Amino acid sequence: MYSTVLLLHSWLRWAVILAGLFALVRGMGGWSGVRAWTRVDERAGFWFVATLDLQVLIGLVLYFFLSPLTTGAFEDFGGAMRNSVLRFWAVEHTFGMIVGAALAHIGRVRSRRAPAARKHRTAAIFYGLALLAILVSIPWPGMPAGRALFGW
Predict the structure, then answer these.
(1) Residue numbers of the domain that contains 108
(2) What is the rounded CA–CA span in Å between residue 36 and residue 59?
(3) What is the C-alpha to C-alpha distance for residues 130 and 27, in angstroms, rounded to an integer?
(4) What is the pTM of this model?
(5) 148, part of any domain
(6) Number of domains in the chain
(7) Which of 14, 90, 132, 140 has the most crowded Cβ, counting Cβ within 10 A?
(8) Cβ 124 vs Cβ 29: under 8 Å
(9) What is the mean pLDDT of residues 38-67?
């Protein structure tokens, strides 16, 4: 079960990244082009947050129930903090992704409530910060805790 859920989590990251990039591009394009907020802009934010929420949910299932790395880290948390790979999975990855999800949610709510002249700017700033937190927290190949780009 662990490998199946991990595979789903690995592949879903690409949907999150693509949805986030699309929402960011819509926000930046509207901000620089001073175009009106449209349904496409609204849906871009919705899909970014929705895919991210699903990704976080799957990640939390892995974190608390299925991953041998985090269950091992929980057994000796002090020791895990001295190991860069265990620390990444037990703290850094999780913290960065939760920050990214929070920023995406804040951006969606604030852009929806912002005056028309500031909707795009708000979306671009918060979705950009969310994507930055997410991209920094992904275990890219070459990192000590790195994983393959496309898990099989």
Answers:
(1) 2-137
(2) 36
(3) 13
(4) 0.92
(5) no
(6) 1
(7) 90
(8) no
(9) 96
